[in-house]
From TrEMBL, chain A:
It is a multi-pass membrane protein. GO terms for molecular function: branched-chain amino acid transmembrane transporter activity. This is Branched-chain amino acid ABC transporter permease. Keywords: Cell membrane, Membrane, Transmembrane, Transmembrane helix. The lineage of its organism: Bacteria, Pseudomonadati, Pseudomonadota, Gammaproteobacteria, Pseudomonadales. PANTHER family: ABC TRANSPORTER ATP-BINDING PROTEIN, HIGH-AFFINITY BRANCHED-CHAIN AMINO ACID TRANSPORT SYSTEM PERMEASE. GO terms for cellular component: plasma membrane. InterPro entries: ABC_transp_permease, LivM-like. The chain crosses the membrane at residues 7-24, 82-102, 109-126, 156-175, 209-231, 246-271, 283-306. It comes from Marinobacter panjinensis. It is found in: Cell inner membrane. The keyword Heme does not apply. CDD domains: TM_PBP1_LivM_like.
UniProtKB/TrEMBL annotation, chain B:
SUPFAM superfamilies: Periplasmic binding protein-like I (SSF53822). Keywords: Signal. The keyword Signal applies. This is ABC transporter substrate-binding protein. Belongs to the leucine-binding protein family. Residues 1-37 form the signal peptide. The lineage of its organism: Bacteria, Pseudomonadati, Pseudomonadota, Gammaproteobacteria, Pseudomonadales. Pfam families: Peripla_BP_6.
UniProtKB/TrEMBL annotation, chain C:
CDD domains: TM_PBP1_LivH_like. One of its GO terms (cellular component) is plasma membrane. This is Branched-chain amino acid ABC transporter permease. Its main location: membrane. It is a multi-pass membrane protein. The keyword Membrane applies. One of its GO terms (biological process) is amino acid transport. Pfam families: BPD_transp_2. It is found in: Cell inner membrane. Belongs to the binding-protein-dependent transport system permease family. LivHM subfamily. Keywords: Amino-acid transport, Cell membrane, Membrane, Transmembrane, Transmembrane helix, Transport. It comes from Marinobacter panjinensis.
Length: 314, 439, 299
């Protein structure tokens, strides 16, 4: 396997973050873990965006991944983190394969609203499940990884970061290739003009369906990682404002590169946490202004900072 | 062309470096900020500053805490808290918005402890946030007081708590108290209905209330329960649905603006002239209803707080200071926040530490202790000494000549409304309150 | 039988409120193709403005009911039109021509900003301007009662709906707007000042949102976060009815209103799902909503 330049850069960045995690303070390790998990869900949003679809219901898969970890640990007695994540992916893929048959027929705002509706129906079901703690949610059991128990405190959050980093790297490398595969390119073609795609003998339905299911699976992994790191799941994960946040971050980063969601998620989390600290009464306003400025000056997302020159030249 | 292809590569490398540098520099900033915290005690205070819970709970709580903190630093509190500072140290506070859900709160909690380097945390109105924070507080070994959240699962989920405390009652006490008050004052009521916000608090409250009613008023029939959404505002349809059931009593655990809106609408629609409402958190509306709740509406205050505070030096001082600052008497969230800050001062003063007391010293001092507060003497007698055991009070709202007051107030001792340690609260009610002591 | 009557009455009362909330959203989308997330904030602004103006009026000893309604209308219209103008001129103008989804994000940013602006102006304490609602009293029908104020909302909603329809179908500006809806480029070529029409449309849409909030203010306790709660509701109604269609918004509101009332009276447990179930159900059979236009796909 020959590694492309992007891939080397991705691996390099992952190694750099892994090394950095040894020296930076613990809160940053935790924040970075959450940012990486969020970025995975955002990756799913970006995948759909490349095909011209905007999902306001990606929280559905995020929540499924999270609850699979919570329930798998609680009721099935699974403690291995990787097994729990696989469980989440299996459930999510099952759900996405059914929903995908329906929602991939829709475009634009109708796709957005339909995905939102399904996510809100899951939210409603969980709110109604008194046995699962309703809106209070419940705690995730202490997990292990391949027989190794990360314990508690600093070593635990570092293990979570390394796990998230490993998963994210794998997914990023896969998606980097996927975006350049015929399937990934067909998605972009569909965004540009889907009727022509059909003329070329490609089934847009099939392409969108596969893309949708993969995006769901990636979102589920993000949800599972969040649950493992935060140690708690609750129905808010499926609420529409959380899905809105994912779209927010996706646009913040842009759809140009697999690394974009990671950078955007980290920036978003840091801006938010410092805004909350500096202006507890006006942090939403700061967030809103930052968003406006980015849209105004970087309409293609933060990533365009790194590719702007290229665009001019070609 | 060649140029344009090469740029992204070094830019990507630059990007990787930039990210690491950014992360590292943030880290350094975090470390630098911790260096200069010697002479003061830093408290993280978490409460709703935005969203629907901020007005009725979050902000009054922050104001209540602020008044006590200011008085602690001036040394102007009444005895036994008339010494300056906590353990002689200036009490500094950082306020954080509780909005955003449990995952975000876990993140903010870690930031408080590790980045802002606080010495203790007080906070949490939402039960979901409390449940998520509990295990993290234990893991991070940080002295933490939950001042308001009501879930009875908090100390069921933490085995052998060391650092997590709650200086108030849980929601079970609210609803057992409500059932006891009805059994004593409305023994003839037959048709019972309810309206609860559609989330864990509402579901738990209704479950505990109906279980307690089955024990205390077995003749009464539960006819209907409405579950409108949180912050819905208009309850027109729900009120019709309740009216068609012709209830005698309407129980509601709704809080804040929702509770006030429902009461005013049900009053205009005539529902409250057919039925008496019992509002488990109604006290926060005592000075806000302005006659929009009919006289005789039963209000609770989640314990001896707000309008139910007993008369003592601390409560008189607190009420006076709060009125002077904000023009209205303190509601129950304000007094609950004040109580948590007093608990912190008590723990710090009696920790015997030199300088800043450690979390272990604070926890040891508060565990199982008795301290004076705005609600009288508080005994930390539940959950192995980690939760307060306090009386529960209910009373009737009366509004005359522009003045609101509570009449026919009854208090039930802590042992009368809370399950003893070792019992699941719901099990305790179902078994007919074993070990109950109502004198 | 009692329950059936109750469902009908409650259903239409709720539908009229839903229509008021959704009308402005659908007008703006129809003409400008912007799904305005900040619509909820305009609703909240209208509610805050009306509640604080009413509070000021009643604390000054005012008692005249007609005056109170004039105050509600004036304060809501004023704040809606001004904020609408400010958002359109100050922010949206810089962004026209961007992707529909980016426009959505822009209005989301506006929503975030407005939420905190309202908090800075009005604080977090709930505003409670119940006097007009209480003064109108109720009508008794057997054990059921209907608040006269709710009936008034119904009347206002019908008047606004008919007014909007008349404006779009029977006036010159309405014709111009419809030409923009059908083909923006051609109408621009025919000499229509599209930019000015956008400003007018956005101000009207914003004012409608503020009026909905203003008229709701005496029923509820006005608290922070109010706008966030109504926005998805309004979206769902508008999408069910068909985006950009006034008739669609009205029909969507009636369907959702009746479905919700039925659920509350017969199965209160299902209330949370009903609006999304209705929306998903309608979209499955009518992919563009009940009255939505099918837009030809580009080749």
């Amino acid at each position: 396997m020959i590694l492309g330049k992007s891939e080397i850069a991705l691996i390099g960045a992952a190694v750099a973050i892994a090394l950095a995690s040894l020296v930076v303070p613990n809160w940053l390790v935790f924040t970075a873990t959450l940012a990486i998990s969020t970025a995975l869900v955002v990756m799913g949003v970006v995948m759909l965006m490349r095909a011209g679809l905007v999902s306001f219901g990606q929280g559905l898969f995020y929540c499924l991944g999270g609850y699979a970890v919570g329930l798998g640990g609680r009721y099935l007695g699974i403690t291995d983190a990787l097994l729990l994540i696989v469980l989440g992916v299996a459930v999510t893929v099952g759900v996405a394969m059914i929903l995908g048959l329906l929602v991939t027929r829709y475009r634009e705002i109708f796709f957005a609203m339909l995905s939102l509706a399904f996510s809100m129906i899951l939210y409603g079901l969980l709110v109604k499940s008194h046995g699962l703690g309703s809106t209070d949610g419940f705690g995730v059991v202490d997990w292990t990884i391949l027989g190794f128990s990360p314990g508690s405190g600093e070593s635990s959050s570092r293990t979570a970061l390394l796990l998230a980093l490993g998963l994210a790297l794998g997914i990023a490398l896969f998606l980097n290739r996927y975006f350049r595969s015929s399937l990934g390119l067909a998605c972009e073609a569909i965004r540009e003009n889907e009727v022509r795609v059909e003329y070329m003998g490609v089934s847009r339905k099939q392409v969108l369906y596969i893309n949708y299911v993969i995006a769901a699976a990636v979102g589920s992994i993000g949800g599972s990682m969040t649950a493992l790191a935060a140690g708690h799941v609750d129905p808010t994960m499926a609420y529409w404002t959380i899905s809105g946040e994912f779209v927010f971050i996706a646009i913040l980063g842009g759809t140009g590169h697999v690394a974009a969601p990671f950078i955007a998620a980290l920036i978003f989390t840091l801006v938010r946490t410092y805004a909350i600290e500096l202006a507890p009464n006006a942090w939403q306003m700061i967030l809103g202004i930052v968003l406006l400025l980015i849209i105004l000056f970087l309409p293609k997302g933060i990533w365009s900072l790194f590719t702007r020159k290229k665009g001019v030249a070609s | 062309m060649k140029n344009s292809n090469q740029r992204p590569i070094w830019q990507k490398t630059l990007l990787g470096t930039a990210t690491s540098v950014a992360m590292a520099s943030v880290g350094v900033m975090g470390m630098a900020a911790t260096a200069s915290a010697e002479e003061s005690f830093k408290l993280g205070f978490v409460t709703f500053l935005s969203g629907g819970a901020s007005g009725p709970f979050g902000v009054p709580a922050a104001q209540g805490a602020e008044i006590v903190i200011k008085a602690i630093n001036e040394g102007s509190l009444p005895a036994p808290y008339n010494t300056k500072g906590v353990n002689g140290l200036t009490l500094e506070s950082v306020v954080v918005d509780e909005a955003g859900g449990p995952t975000k709160q876990v993140e903010e909690y870690r930031n408080l402890v590790q980045r802002q380097d606080v010495d203790a945390v007080i906070g949490y109105i939402s039960s979901g946030d409390c449940l998520a924070i509990g295990p993290v507080a234990e893991e991070m070994k940080m002295f933490t007081i939950a001042f308001d959240c009501g879930t009875s699962r908090l100390f069921q989920e933490i085995e052998d708590p060391q650092y997590m405390f709650r200086t108030g009652l849980d929601a079970v006490a609210d609803n057992v108290g409500a059932a006891r008050y009805l059994a004593e004052t409305r023994p003839d009521a037959v048709r019972i209905a309810g309206i609860q916000q559609n989330y864990a608090w509402g579901q738990d409250s209704w479950q505990d209330f109906t279980l307690a009613m089955a024990q205390l008023m077995p003749e009464a029939e539960i006819v209907n329960n409405q579950t409108p959404q949180l912050f819905q505002g208009s309850y027109s349809t729900e009120i019709s649905a309740l009216q068609t059931q012709r209830p005698d009593i309407v129980h509601s655990s709704m809080w804040g603006g929702d509770m006030e809106s429902f009461t005013a609408q049900a009053n205009v629609r005539g529902l409250l002239s057919q039925a008496t409402a019992i509002l488990t958190t109604g006290e926060s509306g005592l000075h806000r209803f302005d006659g929009q709740a009919p006289n005789g509406t039963i209000l609770g205050g989640r314990g001896p707080f707000g309008g139910f505070m007993p008369e003592n030096d601390l409560s008189e001082w607190f009420t006076k200071a709060y009125v002077a600052e904000h023009g209205t008497p303190p509601s129950y969230p304000a007094s609950k926040a004040a109580q948590a800050v007093l608990a912190l001062k008590f723990a710090a003063d009696s920790s015997g530490a030199e300088g800043v007391p450690s979390s272990e010293q604070l926890a040891a001092a508060l565990k199982g202790a008795e301290f004076e507060s705005v609600s009288g003497t508080v005994r930390m007698a539940l959950a192995g000494g980690h939760q307060a055991l306090q009386p529960m009070s209910y009373g009737e709202y009366h509004f005359e000549n522009g003045e609101a007051e509570l009449r026919n107030v009854r208090s039930y001792s802590g042992e009368c409304v809370s399950a003893p340690d070792g019992y699941n609260a719901q099990q305790w009610i179902k078994e007919g309150f074993p070990g109950v002591d109502c004198n | 039988m009692l329950t059936v009557w109750a469902i009908l009455i409650d259903g239409f009362i709720y539908a009229s409120w839903l229509f008021l909330v959704a009308a402005g959203l659908t007008v703006i989308y129809g003409v400008m193709r912007i799904l305005n997330m900040a619509h909820g904030s305009l609703y909240a602004l209208g509610a805050y403005a009306a509640a604080s103006a009413l509070g000021w009026y009643y604390s000054g000893g005012g008692e005249n009911l007609a005056m109170a309604f004039a105050i509600i209308a004036a304060s809501a219209i004023l704040i809606g039109a001004l904020t609408g103008l400010a958002i359109e001129r100050g922010i949206l103008k810089l962004m026209y021509g961007r992707d529909e989804i980016l426009m959505l994000l822009i209005t989301f940013a506006v929503l975030l900003i407005l939420e905190d602006v309202m908090k800075l102006i009005w604080g977090t304490t709930p505003y409670f301007a119940y006097q007009p609602y209480a003064a109108l009293g109720r009508i008794n029908i057997d054990v059921l009662t209907v608040s006269r104020y709710d009936l008034l909302v119904l009347v206002v909603s019908v008047v606004i709906g008919v007014g909007l329809w008349f404006w779009l179908e029977r006036t010159k500006i309405g014709k111009i707007l419809r030409s923009i809806i059908h083909d923006r480029e051609v109408s621009e070529a025919m000499g229509v000042n599209v930019r000015r029409m956008f400003t007018i449309t956005f101000m009207i849409g914003a004012t409608l949102g503020a009026i909905a909030g203003g008229i709701t203010a005496p029923i509820i306790s006005v608290v922070p976060g109010l706008g966030i709660e109504v926005i998805v509701l309004a979206f769902a109604v508008v999408v069910t009815g068909g985006l950009g269609s006034i008739t669609g918004a009205a029909v969507g509101a009636v369907i959702v209103g009746l479905a919700r009332a039925t659920s509350i009276h017969t199965m209160p447990e299902l209330e949370l799902f009903i609006i999304y179930a209705v929306m998903a159900g309608v979209l499955i059979f009518r992919p563009h909503g009940l009255f939505g236009q099918v837009i030809a796909r580009k080749i």
